[in-house]
Amino acid sequence: MGVSPASHLCEWGEMSIAEPAPAAFPVPPPPEGGAIRAVPAERRAAPELAIIIPTLNERDNVPIVVERLNRVLAGMSWEVIFVDDDSPDGTADVVRALARTQANIRCLHRLGRRGLSSACIDGILASAAPYAAVMDGDLQHDENLLPVMLAKIKAERLDIVVASRHVAQGGVGEWQRSRIMISDIANRLGRLVVKANLSDPMSGFFMIKRDVFSETMRSLSGQGFKILLDLFASAPRPLAFAEVPLNFRPRLHGESKLDAMVVWEYLSLLLEKLVGPAFPVRFLLFSLIGGLGVGTHLFTLWFATHVLFVAFAIAQSAATVAAMTGNFLLNNLFTYRDRRLRGRRLWTGLVSFYAVCGAGAAANVGVASYLAGGHHSWWLAGLAGAAVSVVWNYAMSSIFTWSPQWVAAPALAPQAVPLPAAEALIPRRTS
User: Fold this and answer.
1) What is the DSSP string of 70-133?
2) 3-state SS of the chain: helix, strand, coil percent to 5?
3) pTM of structure
4) Span 93-118, pLDDT tens digits
5) Which of 116, 216, 278, 289 is the most buried (most CB within 10 A)?
6) Helical segments of 131-280, H only
């Protein structure tokens, strides 16, 4: 399916294209003549299970995933939704080509957005299925567990079933020792915010009841790549869960997405769940980077006056510009990673950040001077001015520098998309 403008203009927590219409909405009248044509059952009924697969550069894996799902879920009512973050390798084109031959394959193509957790959220919201499973598109998750998980969640009346690498018969496969150590540390940190006795809160393979997801979705942060941890930490009540063993398989095609920025996003998610909504993590990161900016300012000022022997006024101006530029780049890289500016927008964003910080400096001086003139302590006046400046800079830069942008889809001429060799494995409809 294509991406509607609403999916760009609205936050994921505000609306779902799959939500049923409220009862207050008028029901359309029957067609002229009073007869309503019957709809075939296979078109009328929603699938029982939706498999949500976030993708980024998984073109070669998609046909193999579909072939395996066809084999494992034969005889069941299901659909698979590939949520693609505009992969440069044309993953979305491959999914759409497959969807033309198999009606239960869907593509949710996101423009100007990145993130595994938010992709999972968007995918679940786009389905009316009563059960949703989340799994990776790199073939490392064992699709044979899907029928087992569905039977278990229904028979035991559970909220969620997790495929765990850390229960009996489970394992991490051929991971290197360094990655095993990183995963173990991440699991231990995750238990700071997840009170349930989960053996693998870092798992990316699970199945959840749709109504349970609906209870939690407005409290989700949507940050990073560990949606399971976000679900357990955000749920308004303890979730009834069970675990099934998962043996991690090696990646067949493509490259791992694990990097330093993924680790940063995970730590940001933990911090958000620890400090709560009363103190936004984005503001905390912005303030910490502002503190680094003070250090940058002082170092630049010292270097210019004591090493280069530049006049103080010129040195102070250079230090101010250096601090603002450093703050802008760090905030663009970390604080606003989901809205990161690139290309021409990077330069226009830098100019707007200079303007915002300039106004913030004026507010700082004005408030501090007013309080100092009222016989308040100099340090209290200084702190109050700095606080006003930080809040101003954060609020205004969020609006003018890193405001969410509408991203228009490029106008491309229709063209045939060659599928990977595994496409031959997928059954075709015959007339």
Assistant:
1) HHHTTTS-EEEEEEE---TT-HHHHHHHHHTT-TTEEEEE-SS---HHHHHHHHHHT---SEEE
2) 50, 10, 40
3) 0.67
4) 999 999 999 999 999 999 877 788 88
5) 116
6) 145-155, 177-190, 210-216, 227-234, 260-275
